[in-house]
Amino acid sequence: MARKETAADAAEPGRLKQIALTYKMTRKADPKIGLVLAAVGILTLGVFLAIGFLIGHPVYLGILGLLLAFLATAIVFGRRAERAAFGQMEGQPGAAAAVLDNVGRGWTTTPAVAMNRSQDVVHRAVGKAGIVLVAEGNPNRVKSLLAAEKKKMARIVSDVPVHDILVGTGEGQVELKKLRTTMLKLPRVLTGPQVTATNDRLRAMGDLMSNMPLPKGPMPKGMRMPRGGPKGR
């Protein structure tokens, strides 16, 4: 029992430190975050206190208001922190791979299945919606990468639907912050065993980056494909 309490106590400072670091990161992109959180908390508590005085139960409503004020503040903080994180990642090579890693259960992500020297890259995700190829980079250049990847997969998984998404802010593109939502809205057409079978066939096909170590999240801006390496598939 003592060991469990010690572990919990040791984890608590870590959580608080993580929250503090997240707040500092968010404040750099969103300087008004402190004022917004304070306003949300005070307004929520104030509304419940006012209702409490009107109905003659200020203590009960005050306690409830305090709890809901904390909850509302946490929700607003989470959303603004997420928005700040996406803002910092936007435009960085490999940013979409970091988002794909957090799409949710049931999805298997393979980053950088196709890439060229200009850092245009195609990632692959497999789930019950089928295969989703997510491209980021110059719209004109990534089209050839997508076409080559689709042609290669057609020989192995021709019976599985393939969707392609181009990440960006231009016309016909999907913003990085909307990538997860867009993927989750895709219709589910495969069963669990079919998803597993599709992943097995794609692994047998091999990937461009399977033997090349990649950092988690966005790739460094100075990273380049080695000379003589393939431009795509």
UniProtKB/TrEMBL annotation:
Sequence intervals crossing the membrane: 33-53, 59-78
Pfam families assigned to the protein according to its UniProt record, in alphabetical order: DUF4191
Protein name: Membrane protein
Keyword terms, alphabetized: Membrane, Transmembrane, Transmembrane helix
Origin species: Streptomyces albiflavescens
Biased composition (Low complexity): 219-233
Domain of life, source organism: Bacteria
Region (Disordered): 210-233
